[in-house]
From TrEMBL:
Keywords: Membrane, Transmembrane, Transmembrane helix. This is ECF transporter S component. The chain crosses the membrane at residues 6-26, 38-66, 72-94, 101-122, 134-155. The keyword Chloroplast does not apply. GO terms for cellular component: membrane. Pfam families: ECF-ribofla_trS.
Amino acid sequence: MGDKKILKLVIAAMFASLVCVATMVIKIPTPTNGYVNLGDCIVLLSGWLLGPVYGVAAAAIGSMLADLFAGYPVYAAATFVIKGAVALIAWLIFGRKSRGAVLAVVSAVCAEAFMAFAYFVFEWLLMGQGISAAAGIPANLVQGLIGAVLALILLKLFTGSKALSEFFETFKKKN
């Protein structure tokens, strides 16, 4: 395994750890047995900065571990899929080459709207909560909004730094 691949794995593992910690540090319970947290900030950054492979893996694994560690194992598999998809949607819209602020905002809004919808569907259909699962939508949207705003601020800081910007460009290159 080449040095660049090892570096990418280490950075992805660090992002997974950040997602897990950011998810667990502030937990505000919601009516649907979930909780509002700051993990979405790092989930979005994972997608934007690390791309579709490492970013999705970091977002999915870190979020799933947070559910397991926080005592929400019933959500772990769904969270793995949903948060991985959030990072992927963010990356797909933000793009490989076009890194404008408007695309970052659009990608965050679309990804977080998906997150709120996906948890609603999971709780409604698979958890058997019926339409009462809609009670969690506002909390998930607030979580998504807070995460998006923080992620956009951090993205601006990261891309404003030449060294960090060049570093994250390595995730777009093969090897």
